[in-house]
Automatic annotation (TrEMBL):
InterPro entries: DNase_TatD-rel_CS, Metal_Hydrolase, TatD-like
Top-level taxonomic group: Archaea
Residues noted as binding a divalent metal cation 1 in the record, renumbered to the chain: H6, H8, E85, D193
Residues involved in a divalent metal cation 2 binding: H123, H145
Keywords: Hydrolase, Metal-binding
GO MF entry, a single one: hydrolase activity, acting on ester bonds
PANTHER family for the chain: D-AMINOACYL-TRNA DEACYLASE (PTHR46124:SF2)
PROSITE patterns linked: TATD_3
Phylogenetic lineage: Archaea, Thermoproteota, Thermoprotei, Sulfolobales, Sulfolobaceae
Database matches in CDD domains: TatD_DNAse
Protein name: TatD family deoxyribonuclease
Amino acid sequence: MYIDVHAHIDSKEFDQDRDAIVNECEITIVNAGVDLESNLRSLELEKKYKNIIAAVGFHPEFIKDKENEIEKCLELTNNAKIISEIGLDYYWIKDSELRKKQIKILSLFLERAEKHRKTAIIHVRGGMNDLLSLLPSYKVRFAIHAYEGSIRDAKRIVDLGGLISVPPVLIRDKYRQEVVKEIDLDYLVTETDSPFLGPEKYIRNKPCNVSLTIKKISELKKIEEKEVIQRIRKNFEEKILP
Ligand SMILES: [Zn+2]
């Protein structure tokens, strides 16, 4: 059974065929909410599909336009098993005051994660140093979603007990392949970020593309696919949803 620790199945790209996509293969999918409405949809999906787990958060990209939703999103984390999507995005947000705000908001969600012993699945684009100085202040289980950093930072994350989450774009991304080679399988999980980050550019991604990531990890690490699947499930069960 596959694991997708980060997808956006509630997005409109799946309105036509959501049932088929969710049931296409044996898979557990964590659906990440990005704002108030999508958090609510995420919780609905968990009710509807037995293989979907709702995550609730606030995407750092929305800091400009949706700040008024944050309080409610924080409250909604009470209804979810996992906290996501949260994080720092310095790729889209260049303004230093807004970046500071992102750090502040991330801290609020991490506090919740610590207090309620929930795993945080974290988005980070460009803000790795700030993230790495923030994380040691919280006793939280966490994974870095669609990790795109260096091998060195990946090792720092592992040292903090975090997991590195790998999307199917791995099959065409030499840089991510090097990271996967270097990081022990005990610290890897799979995701898709569907409908984004697919194995082919401009084509909608879907959870069952995890199979492509598994195949590539197996090839890179010279470990049989079956074992890769089992060990990633084990990582998920022990470190994300214990
Ligand atoms: Zn995402």
